[in-house]
UniProtKB/TrEMBL annotation:
<dbReference type="Pfam" id="PF01048">
    <property type="entry name" value="PNP_UDP_1"/>
</dbReference>
<dbReference type="GO" id="GO:0005829">
    <property type="term" value="C:cytosol"/>
</dbReference>
<dbReference type="GO" id="GO:0004731">
    <property type="term" value="F:purine-nucleoside phosphorylase activity"/>
</dbReference>
<feature type="domain" description="Nucleoside phosphorylase">
    <location>
        <begin position="32"/>
        <end position="283"/>
    </location>
</feature>
<dbReference type="GO" id="GO:0006152">
    <property type="term" value="P:purine nucleoside catabolic process"/>
</dbReference>
<dbReference type="GO" id="GO:0004850">
    <property type="term" value="F:uridine phosphorylase activity"/>
</dbReference>
<protein>
    <recommendedName>
        <fullName>Uridine phosphorylase</fullName>
        <ecNumber>2.4.2.3</ecNumber>
    </recommendedName>
</protein>
<dbReference type="InterPro" id="IPR035994">
    <property type="entry name" value="Nucleoside_phosphorylase_sf"/>
</dbReference>
<dbReference type="InterPro" id="IPR000845">
    <property type="entry name" value="Nucleoside_phosphorylase_d"/>
</dbReference>
Amino acid sequence: MEKHRIPESELIINSDGSIYHLHLKPEDLASVIFTVGDPERVPLVSRNFDSIDFQTQKREFVTHTGMLNGQRVSVMSTGMGTDNIEILMTELDALVNVDFETRTVKEEKTSLQIIRLGTSGAMQADLPVGTLLASEIAIGMDSLMSYYPPLSGNQEIAQAIQGELNLPFRPYQARAAFQLVNRLDDRFVKGVTLTCPGFYAPQGREVRLKPRFDQFIERLAGLEVNGRRLTNFEMETAGYYAMGELLGHQMLSLNAIVANRPNREFDKKAEKTVDRMIHAALELLAVKK
Ligand SMILES: O=P(O)(O)O[C@H]1O[C@H](CO)[C@@H](O)[C@H]1O
Ligand SMILES: O=c1cc[nH]c(=O)[nH]1
């Protein structure tokens, strides 16, 4: 049977052979990739590399690729939100699993290791600012997964959240790669992360507009499903985990807890906390096993 050729309008390759948004060619990317939301965090990661051999920027996607401990590694910024993560994951996957010459999917698939180094707000009082947290499970409160095939894993926490808030839609639930979680040490606590489609009302914040849900944080923080509680808010992790599951990549999201919502506190040393997370992550995960 002839292989499906992906049309020019569906997978856009720039005239220099790079992929549309990320502006990368297959050879520009390592198979171990650290991702950050803020483009200014990219050099804070890559300054720890032994060498950098490639740098580019397109929109909010800044990429540095180099060597660390004899291993090729990349760091990329993504901007904020799961809509950006859908673009990132689809284009990273195409860079390794689509032949750009023939525009066909390769027989043999490559699985990337993608590790988010992000900031986050704790929803539990006993997770102080300065905590480093690995998201074992993430729940997506956005609609991204309504457009993709259903996820195969357990959806019990997502279901419980829908029930608690009486949501007109079903959130989605996905997991980190256990191979990556198992490489962490006790610098990281493990948690269940709520990925929200915004920073303010979707995370229960009120500035001028009143959020629609009363007692949002208290109700979510008080939920318990099979001995697990929700731990933190951010804006990308569930999108990563869901796209990673569907595309066959190993995903892990690490969070520097810079806000504690019940205690109404923001980390005065947030930059130091982020740097501690970067160092621990590079030490534990910058080697492909
Ligand atoms: O610090 P980053 O990686 O951007 O992550 C968190 O910070 C942003 C909001 O301030 C959102 O992207 C959220 O997920
Ligand atoms: O509270 C916070 C802090 C960082 N990022 C978020 O999305 N929420």
